[in-house]
Design goal:
This protein has about 325 residues and is of the alpha+beta class. The protein folds into two domains: about 120 residues, 60s Ribosomal Protein L30, Chain: A, CATH 3.30.1330; about 160 residues, PurM-like C-terminal domain (Phosphoribosyl-aminoimidazole Synthetase, Chain A, domain 2). About 30% of the residues lie in helices and about 25% in strands. The strands form two sheets. It has a seven-stranded mixed β-sheet. Bound molecules: magnesium ion.
Length: about 325
């Protein structure tokens, strides 16, 4: 059976997983990271894989950028749970003919990120294969009061985002179409950064949170699934930079589609009750509703949207 016939990546995860009954597992599958109670501490576990030719290409990424990105995307998932990253393991699959310098530069990029977050590589594995693959498993921690789940959204909450969206997918499209210029937009794709620092000052007012790896529509849907709610996304309020709009035009694509269904912006999407809105920063992009459906409000019209953002098995934005 084809993976796209069972709902792509998320359908596959659902088929393969089973709910944990271990009391130490505070959150298993279904959030940005797993949360394990370990003594008095709460540990966060996450993992992410970057595959050459699928997630990145050495045609437009430097090895240093690939290494840095591999770390940043894991840091983003730990941050989306309200946690601080601590240590990680790296598994590398390397083609036998690959130049040692490339591998050294990937590690340079990873160390750069390590210095930035004061985290450390504590082990890993190296093997050979046909494609370059970088797989990172990261551990982080959070005090109980800082833990944020996708499941915490309540009807009437406002949905906010920490920054502009769509630029990473615009950057990717520029590279794929060999379009010159737009260096700032391209940089968003090849040098993404975790954005936890933006929400840390007002974390206690956040009810639910997720990072944007698969596009706003997908992330809001994930929050709604876990919170057993629905949502309305205000399309006209989705923050998209003018340079992103221009880059999308140059690619003959729609920047709003990049923001909704693209991904890898690594901004944070969070919900806040109306009375706490003045205590937080961010851009309002929607509202949580009771009815379990995700709709988009555009030019005064409401329509139900597809919840799938970027899915390796389904979409191609
Ligand atoms: Mg995530």
């Amino acid at each position: 059976m084809d993976i796209n016939k069972i709902g792509g990546e998320f359908g596959l995860i659902e088929r393969l997983t089973k709910k944990s009954t271990n009391k130490q597992v505070i959150k298993g599958i279904g959030d940005d990271a797993a949360v394990i109670k370990f003594g008095d501490d709460y540990l966060l576990f996450t993992t992410d894989t970057q595959v050459e030719g699928d997630h990145f290409s050495l045609d437009y990424f430097t090895p240093r950028q690939i290494g840095k990105k591999a770390v940043e995307i894991n840091v983003s998932d730990i941050g989306a749970m309200g946690g601080e990253p601590k240590f990680f393991l790296v598994s590398l699959v390397i083609p036998k003919t690959m130049d040692v310098e490339i591998i050294e530069n990937i590690y340079k990029g990873m160390r750069e990120a390590c210095n930035k977050y004061e985290i450390e590589i504590v082990g890993g594995n190296i093997t050979h294969g046909t494609q370059l693959i970088i797989d990172i498993s990261m551990i982080g921690e959070a005090p109980k009061q800082n833990l944020k789940f996708r499941s915490g959204a309540k009807p009437e909450d406002v949905i906010m985002v920490s920054g502009d969206l769509g630029s990473s997918t615009a950057g990717l499209n520029l590279f794929l179409k060999n379009i010159d210029g737009f260096d700032d937009v391209k940089r968003k794709h090849i040098e993404p950064e975790a954005k936890f620092y933006k929400v840390k000052p007002f974390l206690k007012y956040i009810n639910a949170m997720i990072d944007v790896s698969d596009g706003l529509a997908s992330e809001v849907t994930r929050i709604c699934e876990q919170s057993k709610t629905g949502a309305i996304i205000y399309a006209d309020s989705v923050p998209i930079k003018q340079t992103t709009q221009k880059a999308a035009q140059a690619c003959h694509k729609n920047a709003l589609d990049f923001a909704l269904y693209g991904g890898e912006d690594f901004e944070l999407v969070y919900t806040v009750s109306e009375e706490n809105m003045d205590k937080v920063k961010g851009i309002v992009v929607g509202k949580i509703i009771k009815k379990k459906v995700v709709r988009i409000l555009k030019d005064g019209k409401e329509e139900t949207i597809s919840g799938h953002g970027y899915d390796h098995f389904l979409t191609n934005v």
